[in-house]
Amino acid sequence: MLTASHAPAFLDLRANSGILRTTRVPSCPTSVAVIDSTIQGTLSKLSEQFGIAPGDVLQLTRVFVLVEGEHDEIVLNHLLADDLGKASAQTLALRGAKGLRSVVEAKFLFSSTEAMFLVVLDGLLMDEVRPIWDEARGHANAGNIREARGALAKLKGVPGGGELKWLEELGHAALNTAKFARIEVHGLKERDIVMYLPEGCFMDTSKTWAQLDQEYEAYCRPLHLAERRNFKEWLRDFRGAHFGRDDIVNAVHAASPSTEIQQLGINLQTLARFGRADALEIL
Question: Which residues pair with 66 in a beta bridge?
């Protein structure tokens, strides 16, 4: 039996059944893709995590907030809890133990929903990514798909951005469906999400994050890139810091959203409501 429906009751995955996703792009034939068993596992995982049926994951989510790792996911889920709820948004970590298992899964969520995607990157990485993404978006808006793909390929050369393959592939998926505007990239000002939490929750120090950041910059200055510890490693090795999952969870309960995080929440709700990138005020 073949049933054409958007109803969650039909989208919920059951034994001896499968789901096909049809996509229509102007001036192109309608394409049909099978949701394979790997993707079905992802939907089941998300449905368990958020307490909704697999079909509802596809139907009810207005915005997927894509973050780099589990720490980012924990922090934003707590500090933006109200905004995420009002925006019908879900956060997804793209690496780490609980992250999406592959780039294929992130691409599936893009092609199988009409949700917007808000990609949140730390400040230093965003400095490199922003001009590349703006170039790709400019080409996409002008209909220059080959040039847009060439711009996305530059993400491979971002220093310390080896994990950006997922962003490049998501961009290609957007170009394939002529919906590049569904992805917005947002840059945080700080180098790591822990800098939006109280310093004393991770180490015995009277110094502020700004002071610790200056000391880290001084440490990095005489070293080649390959010789440097990242910020958290440096804090662990030289300041006795601890960044386990329990440390992060305890810290978020002691934290209040900064003005910057509050603005991110407003941007998230705006994106969910208007469904377009030009409604956002990017920091």
Answer: 92, 119
